[in-house]
Amino acid sequence: MSSHQADGTATEPDIPPLGADTPGRRADAPADRRNPPPATGRRARFQSPGIRPCGGGRPVNLALQGGGAHGAFTWGVLDAILADDRISIESMSGTSAGAMNAAVVANGLAGSGDREAARVGLERFWGAVAHTSRLSPFKRGPLGWLTGSWGLDANPFFLGADLMQRLFSPYELNPINHNPLQSIVEEQVDFDRVRRCDRVQVFVTATSVRSGRPRVFRHDELTADHIMASACLPFLYQAVEIGDEAYWDGGYMGNPALWPFIYRGGSRDIVLVQINPLERADVPKRARDIINRLNEITFNASLYREMRAIAFVSRLLEEGRLPPEDYKKMFIHMVSGGDEMAALSASSKFNTEWQFLTWLRDLGRDRARRWLDDNARHLGERSTVDVGRTFLGAGEHHSLPPWLDPASDPAPPSSADAE
Questions:
Q1: Three-state helix/strand/coil letters over 306-346
Q2: DSSP code, position 385
Q3: Most Cβ neighbours (<10 Å): which of 60, 229, 327, 406?
Q4: pTM above 0.85, yes or no
Q5: What pairs with residue 94 in β-bridges?
Q6: Over the chain, what is the mean pLDDT?
């Protein structure tokens, strides 16, 4: 069953028995997916009445991952989507940098649904990030410029800071809790507009320090503190306190959370903007590389879990074991940075040079445009990413990994073998 905070806000539901409100279940089956009837009960918490997606394209849900400066890739993806009339954004779920991008877009779309205002807002936001950090010592050195590397692995200030955060907490190193991103978010986003926005839903995930549960905030309650809570890396910044609770980065429990899309009804299509690598070809050997890979695995864990639940419900629907009038099949899509993003070192997440941010933006634009050209016609009809192979480890021509597929079980011994 769903767990709730003291104020009644639902956190991520445990997967209950079939017949209860499992991921994929809906209380009704509206004929018009773009105009579902208002939800009631638990689902109503994630249903914002009167949402009017701007544009006449196919409505989609956007899942925006966190990843520091790599969030500029998501900027490019959003820019391409906002410039394309084939789809419209119904909802966004974001964590960390993904939450910041989502808030900026909602700020631009609020009121008249001006997509161009949202695009301009994204450029101003990332421009402010680069401008604020122009005097930061965390820059590439001459070797980085010569080799074309975007990482900071040879920067002595970055290496020193990396060592210090392993020895001292942010309460010791940063007692005044200075975070330059806080002022940027406050200056670039009018949260009164975001809270009144009826053009798109926004869900922002943070991790409760005390309970370890995810906490999803809706756009109609968002402030800069909620965004900073979603982006609070515990080795860099003090926990963000909101009310009686303290929060760390939402990526630990939802990078990003997908289940609000399912519980709130509406569009079946989820487009994941993936900036956190799922796989690595090599086994890390250096201490920093091991820690970085462990962080990637940790931040992908909740995504794998939710994809497994979605695949489970989809399979039961395909086999006729669940009533289609009560459950909906979600269609999964993914825009990825591919080899270019995978080749970036983890230290480049702290590189906020304008040249790097615009390189990421241009890569995101290119990947999004390619994805739209290849897959926009399939929205509302089928997934364009193989969930089984990508997230569950299934082989080619199989929807399940061998350890879950009954068809791969060895045959029982025959009576002749027993003799």
A1: HHHHHHHHHHHHHCCCCCCCCECCCEEEEEECHHHHHCCCH
A2: S
A3: 229
A4: no
A5: 64, 204
A6: 84
